[in-house]
Automatic annotation (TrEMBL):
Domain RNA 2-O ribose methyltransferase substrate binding: 4-64
InterPro entries recorded: Alpha/beta_knot_MTases, rRNA_MeTrfase_TrmH, SpoU_MeTrfase, SpoU_subst-bd, tRNA_m1G_MTases_N
Any one GO MF annotation of this record: RNA methyltransferase activity
Protein's name in the database: 23S rRNA (Guanosine2251-2'-O)-methyltransferase
Gene Ontology biological process terms from the UniProt entry: methylation; RNA processing
Native source organism of the sequence: Anaeroplasma bactoclasticum
GO cellular component term, pick one: cytosol
PANTHER family: 23S RRNA (GUANOSINE-2'-O-)-METHYLTRANSFERASE RLMB
Limits of the tRNA/rRNA methyltransferase SpoU type domain: 90-229
Pfam families: SpoU_methylase, SpoU_sub_bind
UniProt keyword list: Methyltransferase, Transferase
Family: Belongs to the class IV-like SAM-binding methyltransferase superfamily. RNA methyltransferase TrmH family.
Length: 235
């Protein structure tokens, strides 16, 4: 089980009919007329708690909503054998270790029409309650795969018809210029080290984000948001 908390996070889990125990702060029961209707409509039982008890159970950021949810379904590399280019676009995260970054990236993944996120088992943050909270419910709509080797995962995606788009400050292509008809897998590297050299070599395109300021780097979640947004516009 995993703790989830925050209004949007709990609402989306209810809409997806996740197996969980739901807890609502007594003040929210009075203020939010929709929550009880939604819970009853989806067949959930729930427990009403005081703010003090909610704080004890879920910390200080619950907004009056919390749940003990079954663990999110996480896939392994075998899943990639059957994931074809017609099933959607892919985001590959190379070395993202901050749960806030991963949660924010999942919001962009859902917002801009990507369908699958791939991370390495080593040097990556796992799915935690912080990731779920920061995603504000977007995690409910995204398939997540953890693999032993990103290089092997990229090779498999290429076999399945995907074009690989790395991101690098020395890239030569803007995301707006990529053919929108292509089935794409985008790679975002870590803030400290960027993409690994082997993944750079495997990329069909290297996307750059033009910048005019004094600082020549962006937070990984910001970079992901910009690139995914631009590719969404060309889809």
């Amino acid at each position: 089980m995993i703790k989830i908390y925050g209004k949007n996070c709990v609402y989306e889990a209810i809409r997806k009919k996740a197996r969980m125990e739901v807890f609502i702060e007594d003040n929210q029961v009075k203020k939010d007329k929709n929550i009880l209707s939604l819970l009853n409509d989806k067949g959930y039982k729930y427990e009403v708690l005081t703010k003090r008890d909610m704080d004890k159970k879920f910390g200080m950021s619950h907004q009056g909503y919390g749940a003990l949810r079954e663990d999110y379904e996480i896939y392994d590399e075998e899943f990639l054998n059957t994931f074809k280019k017609e099933q959607g676009r892919v985001l590959i995260l190379d070395g993202i270790q901050d749960p806030h970054n991963l949660g924010a990236i999942l919001r962009s993944v859902d917002a801009f029409g990507f369908d699958l996120v791939i991370l390495p088992k080593n040097r990556s943050v796992m799915v935690t309650e912080v990731v779920a909270h920061v995603s504000t419910g977007a995690i409910e709509y995204t398939k997540i795969v953890y693999v032993n080797s990103l290089n092997n995962a990229v090779s498999k995606l290429k076999e399945n018809g995907f074009w690989i788009c790395g991101t690098d400050a020395k890239g030569t292509v803007r995301s707006q210029d990529i053919d929108p008809s292509l089935s794409l897998a985008v790679i975002i590297g870590s803030e400290g080290f960027g993409m690994s050299k082997t993944l750079v070599k495997q990329s069909d395109y290297l996307i750059t984000i033009p910048m005019v300021g004094h600082v020549n780097s962006l937070n990984a979640s910001v970079s992901a948001g910009i690139v995914l947004h631009d590719l969404c516009l060309t889809k």
